[in-house]
Amino acid sequence: MERFQKFVLLPFILAASLTGLSFCYSILDGPTNATVLAGSEARFNCTVASGWAILIWLLNANPVLTVISSHGPIETSDRFTSHSYNNSQSFTSELIIHNTQLNDSGKIECSIQKLDGSSFAFLSVQVNGSLLMKNSTLIVKENTTVEVVCEAIGWAPAPEITWMTNDSLVDKSRYVTQQSQGSNSLHNALSVLTLTPVNTEILTCLADIEALPSPQNATIAVIVGNSTLDGNYSEDSTSTWVIALAVVFSIVGFILLIILIWVVVRCCCLKKGSTYENEVRKISVKKKTDDHLGNRQRSGSENQGYIPEEPHYTGRIPTVVSLPPMSTKFTVPRPDLRTSSAPKGRPQRHTDYPINPKKIRNVTHV
Predict the structure, then answer these.
(1) Do 53 and 68 meet the contact criterion of CB atoms below 8 Å apart?
(2) Which site among 57, 186, 202, 313 is 20 to 30 Å from 147 CA-CA?
(3) Model-level pTM?
C-alpha cells in the first residue's frame, strides 16, 4: 500500500521539479489586433518572462518565424522579420510583416511551446480603392430635382459612403448606397444623392474604411441657372466649338497648301530634268548621225558612167565678127600686078583660155 502511494505521488513530484527547472516562464503580454492598408507593414509584439527557451510566430496556424533563446531569430522569408528587446526580467519579440497582402488577414499567434503558453491577435488587411464622380460641374435649372452619382470601385471591405453639402453632413434619407462584389475579393459601392438645389452648392462624396487615416473624397459643384444663363452657356459653347473648328481647318488647310507647293515644285524639277536629258539625247543622236554620214561620204564609190563637161572659161569671151562668104572662084594673079613681098597677115584669133587648164573630176555619190 505504501509502495502504491509513492507511485501515485511520483508524477506530481516530477512536475513540480520540472517547473522549478525553468518551466515556470509564461507570456506576460501578447500581440494586439492590427488593421493596415495593403502594401504597408504590420507589427506585433510578444513579451515573455525570463527563462524561456523557444518562441514561435504563426500566421493562420502556419509558422512564419522562430526565435531560440540561445541562437536568436530564424527567418525563412524576407516578408517576415523580427526585432528583439531584452531586460533582466523579460524578453520582447516584435514580428514585422512587410508588404502586407489581402490574404494575410487572419490570426497572428505567439507560442512558447507550453499548454497555456500562447497568445493571439487578428490582422486585418484592407484595400483603398478609387472614388469618382462623372463630372466636376453640374448646371441645373432652378427648382429642378437632380440625381448626383458617386461610385467607389475596388475596395476591401466595402467602404462607408457619406455626403456633405457646403461642409455640412447630408441626411442619410436623401441618398441611397448599393454595394456589390467585385473581382479579386474586392467590393464596389454606388451612392445616389437626390436634391433640389436652390442656390449653387458644393457636394462632397466621402468613402471611408478603418485603415484610412482620413476618408477619401470627390467633389462636384452644382450650379443653379435660369433660361438666360442656359442660353448664354449654349451660345458660349457654340462659339467655342466654332472657334475650335476654325483653328483646326486653318491648320489643315495650311498643311495641305504646303504639300501642294511641294508637289508642284517637285514636278517642275522632274520636268526640267527630263527636258535637259531629252536635249542631251537629241544632241547625241544628231552627232552620231553626222558621223555616220561623214563615214559614208569618205567611203563612197565612183560613178564610172559620168561624162565630165568641157572646161569653160569664166572670164569675158571676145565677140567674134562674122566674115564675108568666101568665093568659089579661083583667081590667078596677074603678072603685071605688083605684089608686096611681105606676106599678108592673117587675122589672129585671140583667146584668153588657159594654156594648161585643170582637169575637174565630178563624182556622183549614190
Answers:
(1) yes
(2) 186
(3) 0.56
